[in-house]
Amino acid sequence: MEYPDYEQRLQIQLERLQSTLNRAFRSVPFHQKRLQEHGMDPLHVETLSDLSRLPFMERKDLGEHYPYGLFAVPLRDIVRIHTAPGTNLHPTVTGYTKHDLKVWREMVARALAASGVTALDILQITFDSGLANWGRDYKDGAETLEASVIPNTPLSLEKQLMVLRDYKTTVLITIPSAASQLVSYMFRSEFNPTGLNLKTLILVGDAVAPEFRAFLEDRLHVSVWLQYGLSEVPGPAMAFECRNHQGLHVSEDHFFPEIINPKTGEVLSPGETGEVVFTSLSNRAFPLIRFRTGDKAKLISEPCSCGCPFARIEWLGERTDDLLTINGVKLHQTQIIRHLEKALGFAPDQCRIFKKQYSYLEKYGARSYLEVWLLMNENLFSDEIKMLQKLIHNAEEKLHENIGVPVKIKLKEIRTFAGENR
C-alpha cells in the first residue's frame, strides 16, 4: 500500500477540508446557518487547527433533516441511498455520488489489504439486517482487491458453517457476537476448526477485549482484526488495524479525527480519553462536519512501525451517551419507545429496555437482542389471548423492521417493575 508522507497528508487534508466546507456552506442550509450563528464562514478556516472553532454536528441533526435536507449535491447526482435507524421515528438517510462510492471502495479495500486480504482470498460476509449497508461496502472493497466474495446473506448457523467449509472461505467479516455464536455452534456440533480454510477473522460493529480476541484466535486458529465505522453514516472501515494490532489507523486522507472532552467540547491531546469526532474530507453528497460519534477513544500520534503514517485510535468500546449498541447498531431509547408506541397504537404506561443475549438454542443464537418490558394494564388486556399474542408479535416484527435488531416484548406485573427481577 502507498500512503502520502506527512507534509503531503497535511496539504491533502487542508485542501479537502476547505472544499468540503465550501460545498456544505453553499448547498446545505443547515451548515450555512450554524456557521453564520458562530460568526464564521469557510474562508476563516485557513489551517487544520481552525476546525476546532466550528460547531459540532450530532445524531439528532440527521433525523431532523430527513430525508434529503443534509445532501450537498442535487438528487440527480446521487447514485445510491442508504438508510439506518435514527434517533427518532425517522431513519437516517445517506446519499452517495459516483465519486463517493469510488472513494469508499478504495478505502475499504485499503483496510482489507492492511488485514492481509489479497486476490487469492475467498471472503464471506455475515451481518444482521441492521448492518446490511456495510455488507455491500465490504463486498465492493473486496472485489476491488479482486478477492472472491460470498455476499452478505441471512443464513442459519448450519448453513453458515456449510458455506465456510465447502466454499473454502479464508476470510470472514462479521460482528463479535456472531463470531462467538459460530465458535459455540462448531464445538457443540463437534466440528473441528481444522476442517476449515479460514485464516482471517475481521470483526466490526463493537470493540472487543484482548481476552475475547485471544479466545477466538485460539478456538478458530485465525488472526483477528478490528475495523471501525459508523452504522448511521457513512459506513465501515473508517479506521482499521495493521499487522501490529496496536490501535486502529484512521483513514486521515478521508476523515479528520479529533478527541474531545464530551462535557466541554474542548479538543484533547493525544493519549487523553474522550469522545471521537470526525469531519469528512472526501464525501461530496453528505458532508459530516465535526460529527460527534459518542464513542470513547484515545488518539495515538506516535508513528507505527507498519509504515502507515495515519494516526491511530485506541477504541475503548464505551459510550459518552445513553445509546445502546446491539450487534453493531446504535439505538437511542427515546427512538425505541417512539417506534413501540407507533407499533402498539398507544403509549405504554411503563416500559423498560434491556440489551440481552439469546441462548444458543434459540433462533438468533448468541447474538444480542432488545428486550422490552411492558406493564400489563387495561390497554393490553384482552379476553382473547390470541389477540394479545398477535398484538405483541406484530409489535416485535415492526420494531425489528424499523431498528434492524431482534426484539422480544414481555408483559410484566407492577411488582416486577418495582423489583426489576429479570
What does this protein structure show overall?
It is a single chain. The chain has 422 residues and is α/β, with parallel strands linked by helices. It has two domains: 1-321, 3-Layer(aba) Sandwich (Rossmann fold), CATH 3.40.50; 332-419, ANL, C-terminal domain (GMP Synthetase, Chain A, domain 3, 2-Layer Sandwich), CATH 3.30.300.30. Helices cover 33% and strands 23% of the residues. It contains eleven helices and 18 strands. The chain has an eleven-stranded mixed sheet, sandwiched between helices. It has a three-stranded mixed sheet with strand order 16-17-18. A two-stranded antiparallel sheet has the order 1-2. Helix 7 (176-188) links the parallel strand 5 (171-174) and strand 6. Helix 1 (6-27) packs across helix 2. The longest helix has 22 residues, at 6-27. The chain starts with 5 loop residues before the first helix and ends with a helix.
Q: What number of domains?
A: 2
The residue-averaged pLDDT reads 90
The CATH C-level name of the largest domain is Alpha Beta
Helical residue percent band: 25-40%
Order of helices and strands: HHHEEHEHEHEHEHEEEEEEEEEHEEHEH
Largest sheet: 11 strands, mixed
Q: Nearest-angstrom radius of gyration?
A: 22 Å
With strands numbered from the N-terminus, the spatial order across the biggest sheet is 4-3-5-6-7-8-9-13-12-11-10
Q: Based on CA inertia axes, which overall geometry fits?
A: globular
What are the segments in which pLDDT stays under 50 over at least 5 consecutive residues? 359-365
Tell me the name of the CATH homologous superfamily of the largest domain.
ANL, N-terminal domain
DSSP strand tally:
18
